[in-house]
Design brief:
heterodimer; A: alpha+beta; Leucine-rich Repeat Variant; 6-stranded antiparallel beta sheet; B: 172 residues; alpha+beta; two-stranded antiparallel ribbon; 5 helices; 5 strands; 51% helix; membrane (chain B); cytoplasmic vesicle (chain B)
Chain lengths: 1207, 172
Amino acid sequence: MALKMVKGSIDRMFDKNLQDLVRGIRNHKEDEAKYISQCIDEIKQELKQDNIAVKANAVCKLTYLQMLGYDISWAAFNIIEVMSASKFTFKRIGYLAASQCFHEGTDVIMLTTNQIRKDLSSPSQYDTGVALTGLSCFVTPDLARDLANDIMTLMSHTKPYIRKKAVLIMYKVFLKYPESLRPAFPRLKEKLEDPDPGVQSAAVNVICELARRNPKNYLSLAPLFFKLMTSSTNNWVLIKIIKLFGALTPLEPRLGKKLIEPLTNLIHSTSAMSLLYECVNTVIAVLISLSSGMPNHSASIQLCVQKLRILIEDSDQNLKYLGLLAMSKILRTHPKSVQAHKDLVLQCLDDKDESIRLRALDLLYGMVSKKNLMEIVKKLMTHVDKAEGTTYRDELLTKIIDICSQSNYQHITNFEWYISILVELTRLEGTRHGHLIAAQMLDVAIRVKAIRRFAVAQMSALLDSAHLVASSPQRSGICEVLYAAAWICGEFSEHLQEPQQTLEAMLRPKVTTLPGHIQAVYVQNVVKLYAAILQQKEQAADTSAAQEVTQLLVERLPQFVQSADLEVQERASCILQLVKHVQKLQAKDVPVAEEVSALFAGELNPVAPKAQKKVPVPEGLDLDAWINEPLSDSESEDEKPKAMFQDEEQRHTKPRAPEADEQELARRREARRQEQANNPFYIKSSPSPQKRYQDAPGVEHIPVVQIDLSVPLKVPGMPLSDQYVKLEEERRHRQRLEKDKRKKKKRERERRGTRRHSSLHTESDEDIAPAQRVDIVTEEMPENALPSDEDDKDPNDPYRALDIDLDKPLADSEKLPVQKHRNAETSKSPEKEDVPLVEKKSKKPKKKEKKHKEKEREKKKKEVEKGEDLDFWLSTTPPTATPALEELEVNTTVTVLKEGQEEPRGEEQDAEEDREQDLEKKPSKHKKKKHKKDKEERPKDKRKSKKKVPPADEEAAEPVENGTLEEEPLPPMSSYILLAENSYIKMTYDVQGSLQKDSQVTVSVVLENQSDSFLKSMELNVLDSLNARLARPEGSSVHDGVPVPFQLPPGISNEAQFVFTIQSIVMAQKLKGTLSFIAKNDEGSTHEKLDFKLHFTCTSYLVTTPCYSDAFAKLLESGDLSMSSIKVDGISMSFHNLLAKICFHHRFSVVERVDSCASMYSRSIQGHHVCLLVKKGEKSVSVDGKCSDPTLLSNLLEEMKETLATC
Amino acid sequence: MKSEDTQQQIIRETFHLVSKRDENVCNFLEGGLLIGGSDNKLIYRHYATLYFVFCVDSSESELGILDLIQVFVETLDKCFENVCELDLIFHVDKVHNILAEMVMGGMVLETNMNEIVTQIDAQNKLEKSEAGLAGAPARAVSAVKNMNLPEIPRNINIGDISIKVPNLPSFK
């Protein structure tokens, strides 16, 4: 055996190894490709051998060749063979090759599943490690699904080396198999606190990566990360966490407030530049998120800006770059503080490093004002001339346009100057952004009426100068400008000085070399010009001149009729016929100018880009409904080609009808023009070049283009924008002088008065008056435009699938698939375990069982999460001062927002600011709702017989969620009971206890504003009894009320929570109280009061607690429970629903149910056990209760009797 | 995973971009379309004839990555004992193995150099023990080959060979 191996090795001596291959390639510089193909042939031979070492060597060489760009996918199977070698050395070679060349399309990849699983569970940590590393590069959805469970197990491996790799690869698994995220998340979270720093760092890495895409699902982890941030010393981890916080703060401004201080400390203390920089970045993110609420963080902004300035001034170019990058983030919300550093930014614009120049350009955007716009743009224009690379020049061009056009041309005082700038920009050869310039020209000319005369003059000069046409359209996008020029000259032809000259320029033969969509615009606007000229000539009674123009058109238009572009051809032939007709009329001395120009009468208004989208769908219109029943597929398929063919034939054979009635033609044109005017896409849309007609006449008809070389390249009569700068300066100077004069007078007047203004003379933006009366036409929007401005998310975003609510408890169906042997475990499935108990029953109890379990899990989760609850953590009230708070929070922890739902903030923003001082906090409404809904789902079909809760109350309990509830056939049961109501406000409430606090209950009060007034300063006060008292903020007396932490606009409702301390819970009791508030409406504000009686039933002290049947039996056997029973007759409800009702309204849980007999259990907040045995007879129900307190039991049973009586 | 042709194109363009930059400019390059859009950046370091280029998205700290490259180079230096470019050229597989201990599937795995070196050493030991008897003749041959080499080529500019693009985030 050993001999054979040695023999094999000796054979190998003459195989090339990787080093030989590399050396060989380097020695064959001149015939490298030939040498490599030789090597590949050798490798193919080697792969055919049985010896795994030879194969591994071959694969190793292949990996190198892959790196050089050779396709090695043909060897995929051999790679898998090497991957499955038993020796680590070979295995590693195999996995390396796989990670370099396997991808989702590799078909043999599915063969690797079992091999990888084997390696993952290998006793050698390096086998496992190498498999994880490889898998991370080529994981596919199938592999992810099949291996997710194995990898999850590895996350708790004893070796940190494996743990960290397993944790990290989970991200890749999540991406490919999003279903695995929820089951794996608890463990991932656990790893955040792993003792090994590497594992911890990996977990932070994964969660940061996840949270970056869908931050809202990870808000609940903020406390944990905060802890890590304050405890960790690993800068790498710190940076990641701080970056993560940067992503979270926009969602939760309170988080930002909490972060500011530790981050500021870090900024002051750290020596690591990378950390400092990230801190500054996150502080900026915080400040941005706070900017709407509290503006008094100027110290922090100053600190950031100051630190960034140090970075930018640093000689290290990297820091300079990053400083500018971060500065641009501040700019968005705090432009003032950045503007102070304009000098620095302008200086960076001259930097030799392109990356830095680009960043400085970004900043410039926010630094312009009316005062300095011209100066800055002038500077940029000199850069444009100097710029060597086209990318940077294009970037400059877009920036100039961005800067000038920002916020509706806010900073432009002289549009003549701007038009000149645009015209100057057209001299750029080879830019891709011609269309941008064109769009600006159109926009300005349409929206600034005062500029039209000037614009038309400039545009006609552009049309006249040949340099734009001369440059070949393939090479340059600048000819797009002609599109705008032609349209402007045509549309506003009344302003043209020399219309005839422009007309001729537009009809030059060279125009036909332009792209089709531009020619189309030319043709259309030629007619507009023509109409204007006709009018002019006819008014001057110069009929011969008018006929000359017509003749010109008749001569020149055919060149467009022959165009290969459908749009050009169609327009040209239409217009040619029209002009010919006009010619006939002219010959008869009929005045036609009026009618021709009537074609283009009317004003074109700009339409907002989103206008189309915002048109509301009229009521009753279903866009998805078929108007006619769709034809069956087979039919349409048969007919389509035929129809198309016919259509084409018709078009060829149909004789053109040039004698179409002029009136009719005009009418049609008018209709089309109207349609086009209403179409927001008309101006910009380019005709689709899909169909091209090849029926152009023969070669002899093609006009020979005369290339006119004598055309001067310099645009004649073009004013330089620089002149405007000078003019503008003079103008401003004059203005200032005038103003000063006026001011002096004013000041003198003021001096005479008693009050003195200390206004210093600074030239602010507002002082500069625009040169011409700028009347910017606003863009039109359809009536009743929808206000929503949602930008559609990209449905193909791979990260969207990972937008998963992670706080919901896991359902059974979500478990990761585990590889099992098929016959072995079927009898052990959990479903089967339940069967003996409920075997004869319908399926419903089973479902209930599941719900029940889920609830248990929820309970457990509740306890686990107690310390980490986000709202609690975010409230800055010290927990010791208000122990009640903690309890309250536990109640609301259960579930976090449903997917896609957002907390209704808006109006509460103001209230939120004061919240930190308040004892009560608004719990996340949806959390509560969700919890409730879970509970309600079961008994919802039974609610009609319930009288205690009138339907109106239920609506009050679900006020925000309209929309989600509508789908359900019956409104669900609500435990919310009407507390009090008047014309202003309606109050409903619910009392909840918790097992963690034995003497406290939380009263959730839903306040609904029923009036059209704005309700504010709400305060709730209760007359405490000996037994029950309201928990008030520290320092307030027993007579003070507790403020409600929000305000209510009309029609809005919200929920406030109040904590009560209870001594004895065995008796029900009532507390008298008052809600006082200020109602404010147009007429003024009034102070109002609403009295109520808060009823604490014994039931409200119970907490639904699950109990297992064996524990239940023990409890009953113990004998320390006293017993009592009731019997209610006349029950018509089914037993199942009856139990549901008891569970829901009396907070019991079913322990066991056999036929029409069930045992139930609940527990009071003070730890009393309450056991029930419910039996259903023909028409009656008897309830036997056992409880550690007899009074409590009898009271509970009384309350239950009342409920049952309504069944 | 992109095709070999695209990979080569990326490497060529990256080399082109990086190599023409001056010595004292910043080490960041804004992402072009080729490397996956504006969210991605090229971050590089220049050591003598070698460029180490990482392509990262916005979830990474720029300065952090510069440190990471430094760690990578120092690790290479330790593992190869005074690394030179020929080491990297002739032992690409080893370079890959070292990188795999630092970056896994495009995500940073380990930044602690001692930890990386420990793991690499342990794997080398394992490799040696596996080679055992069977490996001996091959090693002898290899030694002979090296002796017979007329000269080890010098002064060849293969700057772009160390550009490790395929493993980084944008090439998922």
